[in-house]
Task: inverse folding
């Protein structure tokens, strides 16, 4: 429930996935326009997008009273004390651990529910299948901001406020995940499952031993997206929790900003060390994120 | 049997999404007592009538701010990401690195990076004003100005969001027919004509998709408003989502907040249905 992306994308907007959607638009036969200007503009655009990252790192290493000349604010002064000040101001290790626990548990739960439901919708035939699938899709119409009030009341009634549960379970089912798994299973030849049935394999064993290895790409995409959305969420844990014992790191960061808003070098240091892990996570796996998103759009044919 | 497999997901959806949506409507009919639910008073549609009352910040001005923000995000975001996608569509190491650089902000938590931008917009020490001063240009005051606060939040949000929509457009560009572009070029079309008459029409489904998801996500944007401007100055950045948070969780007027939530739900549902309808039409006609 953070901001722009996640509030919609935590539930996700599923699109049909076509097989080889992300066909690389390679250089072959496309070199009609001058390539050098394109490259220069692309590099400048890339640097412009990276500038805020550079700036926050430099700010985290400057003293607060640095005079405001361009070179002063764009060159670091190596004030490492900002980091120790920021690190000492909040129980960061605990907050990191909470985030990691919440995000991992949400991924596991979302994977389990998506695989089961996606398998049922994609492979099994049962009465009311279309109706139930329509119900699942209708969940997309409901934005997270609408849910924050009633779910707060419900969480209060079942004593789930300020617990891990309220941060995990409501996000443990993903329309996007169910849709993706269903698409993968629908793309597989039905005979695989018929043959397994003749062998006397139970449905659940069929899913586990045959299905899961075949839908591995979907598992990767769902895991990464759910993990990132959970890590980056804010509004939900901000409303639902009140103690650092169960709060994620982003809520801790917001609280730190509220209390130390004027100490900007320390706040920048906190921004750097809280963002670095998730940014590195993204950079290591960026290929999966980008091809995942590209194939989403490649399949957009209504 | 199928019911059993779908049950876990459906249980979560029912308890935390579908049921609560109906419950929101119920709550919106009450003068809700957040501390003692039993003391809540049924008031019919009074919460909806007070949407058009004269409280500050008013519903109508917040709706206008939401429209302002979402409109800028949809128009600016779509145009920018289409331009970047066309720029980056060819392969190669360098362009690949530029893609990652533009996508990276999208992977960052809004809490963290919007705080970085608060400092960029700081009137004394911030990067934006320092550069303007060095160039002897006027300083708009950014987040402290009722005029410039919303554009400042929009600039941040575009920086954060555009990477994702660029990649969506790249995905769209990757599956359009190269033969048509080839033919257009053989027929002597210049770059612009090729884009306008050949590439662009083929990108219409992706464009529609980008427009719809940007509309929906912009309507729900909350965190950057909370961190960067707290809805101010003088309510200049109080959007519907921010108003909802404030009414329900700062002023504890839960019933009124629920009425706002129902309005947001209606708008979002309309957008989603619109997407599905137009999507169906496009797939039928193609």
Result:
């Amino acid at each position: 429930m953070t901001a722009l992306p996640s509030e919609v994308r935590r539930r996700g907007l599923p699109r049909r996935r076509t097989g080889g959607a992300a066909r690389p638009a390679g250089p072959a036969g496309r070199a009609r326009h001058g390539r050098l200007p394109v490259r220069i503009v692309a590099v400048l655009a890339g640097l412009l997008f990276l500038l805020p990252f550079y700036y926050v790192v430099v700010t985290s290493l400057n003293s607060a009273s640095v005079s405001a000349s361009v070179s002063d604010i764009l060159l670091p002064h190596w004030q490492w004390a900002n980091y120790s000040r920021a690190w000492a101001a909040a129980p960061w290790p605990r907050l990191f651990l909470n985030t990691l626990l919440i995000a991992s548990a949400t991924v596991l739960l979302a994977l389990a529910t998506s695989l089961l439901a996606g398998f049922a919708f994609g492979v099994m035939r049962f009465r009311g299948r279309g109706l139930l699938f329509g119900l699942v899709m209708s969940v997309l119409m409901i934005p997270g901001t609408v849910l924050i009030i009633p779910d707060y009341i419900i969480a209060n009634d079942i004593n789930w406020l300020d617990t891990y549960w309220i941060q995990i379970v409501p996000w443990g089912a993903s329309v996007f995940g169910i849709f993706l798994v269903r698409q993968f299973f629908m793309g597989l030849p039905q005979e695989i499952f018929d043959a397994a049935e003749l062998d006397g394999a139970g449905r659940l064993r069929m899913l586990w031993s045959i299905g899961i290895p075949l839908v591995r790409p979907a598992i990767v995409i769902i895991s990464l997206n759910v993990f990132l959305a959970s890590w980056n969420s804010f509004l939900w844990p901000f409303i639902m929790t009140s103690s650092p014992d169960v709060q994620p790191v982003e809520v801790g960061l917001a609280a730190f900003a509220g209390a130390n808003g004027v100490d900007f070098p320390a706040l920048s240091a906190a921004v750097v060390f809280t963002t670095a892990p998730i940014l590195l996570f993204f950079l290591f796996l960026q290929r999966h994120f980008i091809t995942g998103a590209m194939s989403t759009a490649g399949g957009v044919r209504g | 049997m199928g019911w059993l497999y779908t049950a876990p997901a459906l249980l979560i959806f029912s308890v935390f999404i579908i049921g609560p949506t109906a419950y929101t409507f119920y709550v919106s009919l009450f003068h809700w007592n957040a501390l003692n639910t039993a003391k809540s008073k049924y008031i019919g549609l009074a919460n909806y009538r007070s949407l058009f009352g004269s409280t500050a910040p008013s519903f109508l001005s917040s709706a206008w701010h939401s429209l302002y923000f979402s409109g800028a995000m949809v128009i600016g975001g779509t145009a920018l990401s289409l331009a970047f996608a066309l720029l980056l569509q060819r392969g190669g190491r360098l362009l690949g690195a530029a893609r990652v650089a533009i996508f990276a902000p999208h992977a960052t938590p809004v809490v963290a990076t919007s705080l970085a931008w608060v400092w960029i917009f700081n009137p004394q020490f911030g990067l934006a004003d320092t550069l303007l001063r060095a160039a002897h240009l006027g300083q708009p005051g950014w987040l402290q100005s009722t005029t410039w606060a919303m554009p400042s939040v929009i600039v941040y949000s575009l920086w954060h969001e555009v990477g994702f929509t660029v990649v969506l457009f790249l995905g769209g560009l990757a599956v359009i027919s190269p033969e048509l572009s080839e033919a257009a070029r053989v027929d002597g079309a210049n770059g612009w004509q090729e884009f306008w008459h050949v590439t662009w029409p083929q990108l219409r489904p992706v464009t529609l998709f980008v427009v719809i998801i940007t509309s929906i996500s912009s309507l729900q944007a909350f965190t950057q408003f909370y961190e960067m401007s707290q809805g101010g100055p003088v309510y200049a950045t109080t959007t519907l989502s921010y108003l909802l948070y404030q009414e329900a969780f700062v002023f504890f007027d839960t019933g009124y907040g629920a009425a706002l939530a129902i309005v947001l739900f209606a708008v979002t549902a309309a957008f989603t249905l619109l997407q599905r309808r137009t999507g169906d039409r496009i797939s039928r006609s193609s």
